[in-house]
Fold this protein.
Amino acid sequence: MSALVRARADDPRPGLLFEDRAWSWAEHTAEAAARAAWYAGQRTGEGPPHVGVLLENVPEFSFWLAAAALGRFVVVGLNTARRGDELASDVRGTTCDLVLTDAGGAGLLERLDLGGARVVDTETATYEPAELPPDEAALDDLLMLIFTSGTTGSAKAVRCSQGKIATYGYGMVQRVGLTPDDATYVSMPLFHSNAVIAGWTPSLAVGATVALRRRFSASQFLPDVRRYGATYANYVGTPLSYVLAQPERPDDADNPLRRVFGNEAAPVDIGRFADRFACEVLDGFGSTEGGISITKTPQTPPGALGVGVGDIRVLDPETEEECPPAELDAHGRLLNADAAVGELVNVDGVGGFEGYWDAPEDSAHRSRDGRYWSGDLGYRDPDGFLYFAGRSLDRLRVGGENFPAAPVARLLTRHSAVIEAVVYAVPDPVAGDQVMAAVVPTNAFDPAGFAQWAGEQPDCSPQWVPRFVRVVPDPPRTATGKILVRSLAAQRWDAPDVWMRDGETLRPMTSSDVAELAEAFASSGRALL
């Protein structure tokens, strides 16, 4: 990555666009060199050189990514949606030396135990011009720690070396045909691997222009594409659906967009988006860890992820034997889920997985037997195409954000009328998951205000607020008294006393609501879920 940044040092072409400002690549590299020199002067020599970045997609984030590559220090991408102790634990757990933020982020950090990390306001900090650092980075130098969620109930930071990010970035250049004449629209958060690997790095690699948006906006997507002359964009999760929900105009296809790449779009939205905006949409499946990749081919059936890059198999996590192929009815419904569904595993090796920061047991679990175990569930049809079947019950992906269920359940049990709570994923009709909670109530429990109460908690991420709540006075339990979450999750909303979020409150779910959900799954091509 250091070499990619250095290659732009004398490049006069447009490098970064943000709102009404613009920087050439040469100016961008100079900004990065100044920050690398500033941080070198700030270091005390104690602890790892980890710099937490709690920023939206503003130019400072881009400057500091390049500065880390030059200065051989590590950017820790801090999720702007996390709150309270969860955010503080991310800072402490990655041993951040300092945290870069702005006025908005500083408010989130007030009164938190950051383990000694110093908070720096990027809006007031100043940096003196500096030469490029003399030392070239090595391929295995750590460049970023990017948070994801695992199966243990706590967030883990994925190790991403300079070589890994650069290699994946070059791969994206080839996959989407990016050239120096392109402009890349990056509205996905830069603390996420999708934005860094699919947007920022490939643009840096070839000298294409990066057009940053502070945060994604469906209504401003097309105006921004036209304003910046964007020919390429990246996404993760549901953005295509939100853009498609905007009112259609007869000139929607009149735009410079050529290709869009991302992960986990609703199958039906891929074609709709391509047709409406006259571009090509490339949708894949992978993980922040980099251990597994699945790509669509022209022959990929509707609803399938595609075929594995390398030898990707579906294995029973208990026996480690390969699961039998799926048996599908005439409508494509899975008939032998108990036998066919297993964990998606890269049996060729661990791929780009370089481990988690300070979590050797979790790293070993992911890479046991020299294979990469994704933690994602899937099945394979008789023709070899892979399908996504969900995630283990204690992790969710909502609006592109991965998080474990345990912290959400702990938060919900703080409610005075909740005796016990469990949280699990149910599929979203468009992409990813929705949060469903089952609560064991006291007699004073009032479901109508429960969602509003949860959203008002200072440590509750907006994605954590349950979409569905099931009130279960006597839930099914194991022999040791634990709630059988798997049983509840299998029933989803097809159960008594289920409430659904309507605005900020909950209301009883009706048979009409269930029917509307079924129609939504069918129309988005996710009926199999």
In short: The two ends are 40 Å apart (CA to CA). The chain has three domains: 2-283, 289-391, 395-523.
